[in-house]
Amino acid sequence: xxxxNSEAFVVFGQHILWSDMVGNLFGLAALALxxxxxxxxxxxxxxxxxxxxxxxxxxxxxxxxxxxxxMLVALYGWWQWQRGKxxxxxxxxxxxxxxxxxxxxxxxxxAVGTVAVAxxxxxxxxxxxxxxxxxxxxxxxxxxxxxxxxGMVEFWFAWxxxxxxxxxxxxxxxxxxxxxxxxxxxxxxxxGLRDWWLRSRAAAQPTLEGAPA
Length: 213
Hints:
Blueprint: E1 7-11, E2 14-17, H1 18-35, H2 41-56, H3 61-84, H4 100-123, H5 131-149, H6 154-172, H7 176-204
Antiparallel strand pairs: 1-2
Helix pairs in contact: 1-2, 1-7, 2-3, 3-5, 4-5, 5-6, 6-7
């Protein structure tokens, strides 16, 4: 996997690694497919995780572990969307807003998970270059993917919160392409949020008797 971690090119003084570039391009494609509610978002997300796992394994164990969890959640998302792909009436999963109980559960899981993972990273410094922000991104990514798997509009809000920390952290630690991609993620998230928001509102409106569906 050493070739994955070799330098692809330099732009604006930033050294771009092949692994960083290829893995995050797949991640970007996965997010775009998620916006379109395509079930192919999950295989592409799995492939992105696999590439980044190979790149990190052996020298950034914590980052490699993060990608292993991402791949497991991608498998869960594939299973969920396969089960619910007819719910939207157009061969795709239906989207909705989470209930307040679901929101509270995800917020609590994110808070407890971030603290637990950060303490683990702190106890074993080789697992992470920056324990607390890295734990925040790790757990936030898992929560966002879980919400996406369940067709929740809150998925996009979770990604925005991850982006706020992901952009500066990646630039600071030499993963410039990840930083650039997170900026593009932000734009895609806003478009995706608008699309899913409108779809969820349209699905919630009752159909008048005798009117076409």
